[in-house]
Hints:
The chain is α/β, with parallel strands linked by helices and 446 residues long. It has helices at 13-28, 52-71, 87-96, 112-121, 168-172, 180-192, 218-226, 246-254, 271-276, 283-296, 315-328, 355-378; strands spanning 3-9, 31-33, 42-47, 76-81, 102-104, 127-129, 150-154, 156-157, 176-177, 197-201, 233-237, 261-263, 301-308, 332-337, 384-392, 399-404, 409-413, 422-430, 434-439. It folds into three domains: 3-129, 3-Layer(aba) Sandwich (Rossmann fold); 150-378, Alpha-Beta Horseshoe (pyruvate-formate lyase- activating enzyme); 384-439, CATH 2.40.50.140.
Amino acid sequence: MEKNFYIETFGCQMNEYDSEKISGMLKNLDYKETEDIKSADLIIYNTCLIRKNAENKLYGKLGALKKLKSEKDDLILAVGGCIPQNDEIRNYILEKYPFIDIIFGTNTFYRLPEMISKHLNNNNDVLVELEKNSSSLNENLPTIRKYDHKALINIMYGCNNFCSYCVVPHTRGRERSRDSEDILTEIKLLASQGFKEVTLLGQNVNSYGNDIEGDYKFTQLLEEVEDIDGIERIRYVSSHPKDVGDDFIDFLSRSKKVCNHIHLPIQSGSSKVLKEMNRKYSKEDYLLIIEKLKKSVPNISISTDFIVGFPGETEEDFEETLEVCREAEFDAAFTFIYSIRPDTPAGKREDQIDDKIKHERFNKLLETLYPTFYEKNLAYKGKVVKVLVDEVSKSKDDYLTGRSASNRIVHFKGNKDLIGKIVNVKITNVKTWFLEGVLTEEDAYE
Ligand code: SF4
């Protein structure tokens, strides 16, 4: 009898990429993906530990599984990803949610088929499989991709940076770059299958190749991806400011396929806070990179991340963050309220900021950022942009949604035959978070 699996992914695109691999392996075991959790025979939560919110959200979901498990005896429940990598939180989950059957980590997800089979042979004990620091690159796993026209490609795993607030080096281990030949082979195959866009993923893509011998670095990789026929757009995420060099910016200025968008997390506008975050750049260093990018790459769109309320952040530090917002004029940002993460130096500090102050600063940050996002979008009104069409709009059946090269979400009326194609859309209306337009034959501005 056919079995169904339900998978929910929390956190970053790394986890999304791992979930695509998990789905691929399960389909090889004749499991079919379902979006209806109640019809699932196997439920997987691929988890994120980066913020307390994501952790709390998981606990809510796990609590709700108890009832499902009691109604369906042979239901298999699995929790994987970043959260189980932390001993204390994993033990809490094991104690509080004893009905979970399988626990795996970021470095052991590829063993899930084996764990399911072990569970089916002996379904009494919870199975826990973890590796703290894997050297495995999980090559040659089947992948079920979310889209047929754009794909996430992991080019490296882990992180060496140890920002003082972050759990990633603890959950995903040290940096391991994939062999460039393996990456290029994967992308050539995707191009032959009709994929038009690839997003190269890593915690810090600009340090790609630093852990392997030789001079082959991220810029060389981008150059070779650019040579692959059929691939029309190349994206990459994330870039760490400390590793964005002039050769890279120079390449962006020449590239025909790398999109005019960079996600460059700043986290704070105060050099003092940045030092305490162990980010290894100052406010001035960051602003200089922005200046170079804006000079070299026409219409570059810059998005960033902010953490508000880092321990010891003063009003003056926060004011500097607001000043940087005004100066850098970001196109988009992910904004977060600092939360204590296990095993991190910042989490152990005694000068944690009061919640009320954190929320007040957070609101002020949004009030400063949002008008700029809108202004930047307004510049597109009346212009024509190329849009890679992703899907039918979630709010209107006869509308489509896609992204411009600068990573703006664009909604327009159109037939779903256009999904996967690059079309020209004239922008007629703009909002803070998206653009609206109409299909056109006119030449595109970008
Ligand atoms: S660069 Fe810093 S914030 Fe990003 S994953 Fe590595 S340690 Fe975490």
